[in-house]
Amino acid sequence: MKNLIIGKRDALSNWLRQFVTIIDIEKRMYKLQEGLLGIFKWGTYKPLPKIDYVLVFRSLFAKCEACSIEENENNPNAYFQVSLVYNNTRRIIVRETKNKDEAFIFAHEVASGLKTKLRDSATTFGKSTWLL
Asked: For the segment 99-125, what is each residue's pLDDT rounded down to a tens digit?
């Protein structure tokens, strides 16, 4: 079994700054790592809180106020976020990607690694379903 889960935050990262979340399953620690130019990296490990579930969520970074909800389904500025939910509402964002399949594969890996539930809030607007 893999002891480290490493997730990139594509929505925030660019050529200058990169954001990565690292989870050490065995030690029950996590780190929100920030990097500059791919060379300089910083962040400290913190104890991983008790995780309620893994959440796949769809976020629109550039909302179109005049668009209908149906148009938002195909918004090119949408990202799928894989988060760890703890204390009912708090979240640690582990992965961001524009690829829905990639997000769900990663979410299954994280939920299996942490032995917790998985919730889909990305597929159907306004509805959540439990997958694991």
From this structure: 999 999 999 999 999 999 999 998 887
| pLDDT, mean of residues 17-45 | 92
Residue 50's contacts (CB-CB under 8 Å, 6 or more residues apart) are: 86
Question: Cα 101–64–79 angle (5° rounding)?
Answer: 20
Structure tokens at 87: 């204390």
Number of domains into which the chain is organized = 1
Instruction: Band the pLDDT of 14: cuts 50, 70, 90.
Output: confident
Whether the CB-CB separation of 63 and 73 falls below 8 Å is answered with no
Query: Which letter, b or e, does each residue of 119-129 get, where b requires 16 or more Cβ atoms within 10 Å of its Cβ?
Result: bbbbeeeeeee
CA gap 1, 52 in Å, rounded:
21
The single-letter code of the amino acid at 74 is N
Domain holding 120, by residue range, is: 4-130
Phi, psi of 98 (to 5 degrees): -85, -10
| 20 CB neighbour count, 10 Å cutoff | 18
Q: Which of 10, 12, 15, 13 is nearest to 37 (CA)?
A: 15
